[in-house]
Amino acid sequence: MPSSDPKTPPTYVVTSADHALRAAVMLQLEGALTVSQVAERLGVARSTAHRLLQTLVYRDFAVQDEQRVYHPGVVLELATHSQSRTSRLRTVALPHLQRLVDVVGESANLSVRAGDSARFIASVECAHALRVGSREGMGFPVHRTTAGLVMLAALDPTEVEALFAADKYAERPGERPHMGRLRSELASVRRAGFAVNNGRSERGVVAVGVPVRGADSAPIAGVSVSMPSVRFEKGQLPALVATLQRVAAAIEADVH
Q: What is the phi-psi region of residue 225: left when phi exceeds 0, alpha when psi lies from -120 to 50, beta otherwise?
């Protein structure tokens, strides 16, 4: 049986890591904190608290608003709102991703959406010396990823407009997609049922993806394969999409 005694700290505590983890938990539980508040709570200098929070921002555990207040980032949002679903989805998907890699010979990924970000929750690398490496745990702008595009395509156009509202990007206008081009692209993805990403998130990489749907038929994730552009041939696209759709259906069946 688990002990009811308080946790005993490990013999060797990495202080900086402990502080960063405590700051992340504070953000997750409380929602918004300033550098001064974190410094006071942790008993560290403001400069130390600032470095800790900037590290959390870099790893997507936190975001900073225009008032210099820190909020939970996409990683903590996923953990807060969909931890059990995301964990189960990853567990279910991994063997299917491995079989996908065995069939197509390229790296495979599973991604979910959190607002205007897409996060890779599972990756399986292929055996080629020249290959696309694991993206697991990484976050990208949702409109720049294959899985993100198939998930966006399922949204009502008004939801897409609201997601990328200009006022949300007032401090970072360069990160906002061109809405006319995005609307056109999502319409094409919607008609086709799959998305192709040629160098959009990384130069020299091509990815193809399809949605993984929940019980209500709305996408809960996207499954994709990624390969160096030198190995991609348009003629292989129909067979690749068909394989991806079979894998997506298998994941859906296991999740439900």
A: beta
